[in-house]
């Protein structure tokens, strides 16, 4: 049985986030989805990194955008890992798990991030078997002008009861919601329009129980992959269709 949930940055509670090892762990645990973050190197190559600088994750210091791919690859992550490219990540997940590609666009920080990432997704053969999301909703708008069919989703750090006209125009499939801001009213507003509710991040047993009791239809995001897998398998009410 697929574990219906989004593995946050791979198995980031156990392995360095956004690394190929973390992504493979999500595949091995039979998760339905895996999320990872994408930025651009100085020479325009999409790479996996959450923070806008490399300080927290690597043995180097500085902004992601200020280093070439070769320089980024020279930095070491805990356990001897190296920064992964989007192309490498897609090769790991293709046909095994649905990738949720989060573009870390921020205004005009990364010109052509959307075009370059979309080209790689198309070339990989993943295509419509992925979902591209972003906190930067202008980035989502650009993606829709570039591709009429690629699955898209929005995520946010707040509750947005006014967002649904934009979602309809962009033909989005999913709305990411901080779990602390998910209410019965907001859940109804999302589901009655046919969108997937994506609460994040669901790590504690208390939050998992909340999902099981009130929002079993949602597609959660978690760092605690084994904890959620055990919980999921023990709660039949969570066993929804694993389709996107």
Explain what you see.
The protein is of the alpha/beta class. It is built from 9 helices and 9 strands. It has helices at 20-28, 69-74, 86-93, 113-124, 137-146, 164-170, 184-191, 205-214, 225-234, and strands at residues 3-8, 31-40, 46-48, 98-103, 131-134, 152-155, 174-178, 196-200, 221-222. Strands 1, 2, 3, 4, 5, 6, 7, 8 and 9 form a 9-stranded mixed β-sheet that branches. The radius of gyration is 17 Å and the shape is globular. The model has no long low-confidence stretch (mean pLDDT 97).
Order of helices and strands: EHEEHHEHEHEHEHEHEH
Strand content: 15-25%
The largest sheet, given as strand count, sense and whether it forms a barrel, is:
9 strands, mixed
Give the terminus-to-terminus CA distance: 16 Å
What gross morphology would you assign?
Answer: globular
The helix count comes to 9
Ranges with pLDDT <50 over ≥5 residues? none
In quaternary terms, these chains amount to single chain
Count the beta strands: 9
Give helix % range: 25-40%
Average pLDDT for all residues: 97
- Alpha-beta classification: alpha/beta
| Radius of gyration from the alpha-carbon trace, in angstroms | 17 Å
Key terms for this structure?
single chain, 244 residues, alpha/beta, nine-stranded mixed β-sheet, 9 helices, 9 strands, globular
